[in-house]
Amino acid sequence: MSTPKSPQSRLDELQWPFRTERVTIRRCATSDLGPMWNYRGIPEVSKWTSWHPTDREDWDTYQGDPARMARTLVFEHENAIAGDLMLMIHDSWAQREVAAHAHGTQAELGWAIDPAFAGRGLATEAVRELIRIAFEELGLRRVTASAFAENERSTRVMERVGMRREAYNVKESFHRDLGWLDGIEYALLAEEWRVAG
Predict the structure, then answer these.
(1) pTM check: above 0.90
(2) Which of 43, 123, 138, 167 could tie 113 with a disulfide, CB 3.0–4.6 Å?
(3) Residue 194: which pLDDT band, with cuts at 50, 70 and 90?
């Protein structure tokens, strides 16, 4: 009996890069770690992300991990990295008897943008294309994104791309500086995206 391939390996089968009017989305390469560090090391950026790298070595070690790199994409504007995206494919929950039907059917999305490129709608454009890739190129059935509820910029991106709020969790996320905070989760189904498109 063969072991099923990792759902994440499906990204290897796509024809990168993907382009929109203003952004180019491609797989993250080791050579991107330096340009990404230039904004990921800024406290304003890492305030709402899952970690704040202590220094460049910490960034390279953690972000350079093969499993992390496999789910990281970068988006460029005018040939410069404007931000990064996460597309983490995983199984939907299913009962054991039908678990094979849920293998690799949904993804969690994430993003960060260099403040030098903020305020132009580039993150929204990149996330909108990321959703299209998830549904059209990968054939996924559902995408989700979550954030601290106080992270209004990310919430606005989720709403602009047509995601709907599914959960508001009271004091369920522990922030390194602010303590226990509320968390939110947004989601979108492929059929909702097709109807809205």
Answers:
(1) yes
(2) 123
(3) very high
